[in-house]
Amino acid sequence: MKTVIITGTSAGIGYKLSQIFSDKKFKVISLSRSSNITEIASKNIEHISFDITSDDDHQKFINHCKTNKIEIDILINNAGLLINKTFNDITVEDFRKIYDVNLFGVVKLIKNLFEFFSSDAHIVNISSIGGLIGSSKFKGLTAYSSSKAALNVLTEVLSEEYKDSNLTFNSLCLGSVQTKMLEKAFPGYKAEVSPLEMAEYIFDFSVNGKKLFSGKVIPISKSNP
Length: 225
Hints:
The protein has 225 residues and is α/β, with parallel strands linked by helices. It has helices at residues 12-23, 55-67, 92-113, 142-161, 180-185, 195-208; strands at 3-7, 27-32, 45-49, 72-77, 117-128, 168-174, 217-220.
């Protein structure tokens, strides 16, 4: 049984991804601060309470992987934080909070899990169309979009550094998806894509995308953004 680790699984895309991977007979390790994922009755899913900004939680998870001899076939960095404030109103502390989740948390997790990756593991970073250079931008998302742009470059550089291995790094830049995070940031806005629809796409890409893509930053959106 192959193993997938998914962050940000308490709701939305991450929650649906956990369901899909479990249904497809993957061993799912679900990482999120809250444990709604336990509502899914499946022996294939193991939920671990995890704050991606917490060094203690990272160390506990490293220990868990060592103790249980975990070998990771797919890592999906899905956890994210979005704060909608104009540049006038957003604070440096807001920037730090967003970067801690969207960039530095991902960096720490990838570094910490390197020894547990299978020889041909696929690392999929969930980014945003707002972080894609040349795309249209939303007002109020200076911190969020710039953090996702940094994540995209991280993906490209990691792919270059490890091009002589069989590890694959890719970044998916999602357009608007009707998640709680979107609803909180943009009250009243209705996205055309549901969490389930996007999760189905991400599942297929995570399993099969490494055959065709490596080090790519790929827009997944009907519009721009």
